Amino acid sequence: MIGLVGAGHMGSSLGAVLRRGGHEVATSLAGRSRRTAGLVGEAGITVLPHLADVLERAEVVLVVTPPGAARDAARSIAVAATATGARPLIADLNATSPATVADLVGILAEAGLDLVDGSISGPPPLVKPGARIYLSGPRATEVAALSWRDVTPIVVAGPAGAASAVKMSTASVYKGLMGLLAQAMASAEHYGVLDTVMADLGGEFGTPPDVARAATKAHRYVAEMREIASAQAAAGLSGSLFEGFAEVYAAIARSELAAGDPENVSGKLTATEVARGLRVSD
């Protein structure tokens, strides 16, 4: 059995494609939202009462939470594993810095648990097949060997933290550009030049629906931008750029568009609708 900690839009989608590969997949909905319960039901994922039940039955547990919740998730897993004696392999697939991964390794090791460092590049596979899952650490090949469907596992040479270093670099481009586009659209709409700006950009950096979908996830991108800033600072670079993007996404998280869910965003949204939806209400 494969366990899931965090079965939201991405997690439930990964669970669905693993089920297509023949795995039984289980999660706990304790403390989760009605939306998550709906996504889990649609994916056909088995629901168990508590996290401890998932750990006792699973051979591998995938953790797919918001980046800011990664340490708390690891602590909860460690507590439950200590109480039950369960020792599944843990694969953390969150968008975190190598330094955060090192913390997770330490937290889980205290409970006798091994960690595979992972990161996801691409949309949920039920939305668009083809996401890549980067994996690193001594037991990375065990997670890569699962019967994945519609995603491509890629083992990155190096210790735990290497897969997350990939994510910190790629997400800095993908989500940085989306933050730039959102800022440009909002600014252009304010000055009455939105149509001209969008015509000049020509969709090269994303579309209005892409920005709207990003807005629904802005609350979790704030912590991710700070993880990127930390990773870049540890590499001897300035962390100021992505601290700034954290502020951008924090503002977007207070906008009208942020109240939606990514799976419900219309592909027909216009630039004007999106730009006005990005306005922040004080």
TrEMBL record:
It comes from the Bacteria. One of its GO terms (molecular function) is oxidoreductase activity. Keywords: Oxidoreductase. The keyword Oxidoreductase applies. Pfam families: DUF1932, NAD_binding_2. Gene3D superfamilies: N-(1-d-carboxylethyl)-l-norvaline Dehydrogenase, domain 2, NAD(P)-binding Rossmann-like Domain. InterPro entries: 6-PGluconate_DH-like_C_sf, 6PGD_dom2, 6PGDH_NADP-bd, HIBADH-related, HIBADH-related_NP60_sf, NAD(P)-bd_dom_sf, Pgluconate_DH_NAD-bd_C. Residues 2-139 form the 6-phosphogluconate dehydrogenase NADP-binding domain. Residues 188-251 form the Phosphogluconate dehydrogenase NAD-binding putative C-terminal domain. The active site is at 167. Belongs to the HIBADH-related family. This is 3-hydroxyisobutyrate dehydrogenase-like beta-hydroxyacid dehydrogenase. It comes from Allocatelliglobosispora scoriae.
